[in-house]
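[Automated response] Your request has been received and processed.

Submitted sequence:
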Amino acid sequence: MPDTEVPTHAWHIEDREYRRQEERRGRRFAYTGLDPARTALVVVDMVPFFVDANPYTRGIVPNIQLLADHLRPAGGSVAWVLPARTERTPVGDEFHGPDAAEMFRNSGGTGPLRNRIWHEFAISADDLVVEKSAPSAFFPGRCPLHELLQERGTESVLITGTVTNVCCESSARDAWTLGYRVIMVADANCTGRDQDHNATLRTVYRSFGDVRPTADVLTLIDK
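Generated structure:
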């Protein structure tokens, strides 16, 4: 494999899942349109700690940037969500082990927030940049994202970033619980293995939101 190539997930949702939703609501996807001005692209944990650790993460950078570049001029919001540096806890040390707990505690890096985002992204002055002290970007009291998006009148969120089956899935679930129209962008999320990635896509599609590739979401933005 040439050095310039990076892997991308072979994402997949089974036809029986599509048929199940089509039988329930009469269409494959819940959300057939977006109001770009009331839509936010939520980019989860795209910081060096995670991007350097997993080649799949490098593969989603172009799609996230493409979504941001289309959504901003359409009046939408882009929100970069970074891991906060939290205090060590006995439960965290017990669960992860002390060394791993300390490593994860520092995963968001140090210094100005905007400087912690992966360097290949073009960040706008109007973008939101926030920290979360829980896996989910929408868990009450652990991240200011929900309140900031409410101030902007956001009704739909596009979930992207890493890792699919932890912080991204947690954010999708909580966003749905808070009443957002959730779309998880299938080829703009990543984790370590296709099977883990696809298990989350299936769960989200069944119970919490739509799952669409970048090309589909761009069509919805540009309508």
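Summary generated for your ticket: The longest helix spans residues 55-71. The chain is about 45% helix and 15% strand.
If you did not submit this request, please reply to this message.
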